[in-house]
Amino acid sequence: MAKKGSRIQVGLLCEICKSQNYVVSKNKVNTTAGLKLNKYCRKCKKHTSHKETKKLD
Q1: What is the count of structural domains for the chain?
Q2: What CATH number is given to the structural domain containing 38?
Q3: What DSSP assignment string belongs to 6-32?
Q4: Do the domain assignments include residue 27?
Q5: pLDDT tens-digit map of 18-53
Q6: Containing domain of residue 37, as a range?
Q7: Quick one: pLDDT at residue 1?
Q8: Whose CA is closest to 20, among 41, 36, 46?
């Protein structure tokens, strides 16, 4: 069975090229707003802003 808890997995999508580069977990109780982080995009080959989306398999 799956764990019961408040942590969920979300994907981080590059705002420039729209590719999903990272999968992270977040606590949906403590962090209600969407994540927006500066991360490295392998497709753009530079640091860009990444925003939270649903996890794509």
Answers
A1: 1
A2: 2.20.28.120
A3: SEEEEEEEETTT--EEEEEEEETTT--
A4: yes
A5: 999 999 999 989 988 999 999 999 999 999 999 999
A6: 7-54
A7: 65
A8: 41
* Type of residue found at 47: H
Residue 1 maps to a domain: no
Residue 11 covered by a domain: yes
- The pLDDT, as a whole number, for residue 48 is 96
4 pLDDT higher than 80: no
Q: Are 26 and 12 spatial neighbours (Cβ–Cβ below 8 Å)?
A: no
Which residue reads 């925003």 in tokens?
51
Do residues 51 and 20 touch, judged by C-beta distance below 8 A? no
DSSP state of 33: S
Q: How far is CA 22 from the centre of its chain?
A: 6
Answer yes or no: is 2 within a domain: no
What pLDDT score was predicted for residue 24?
94
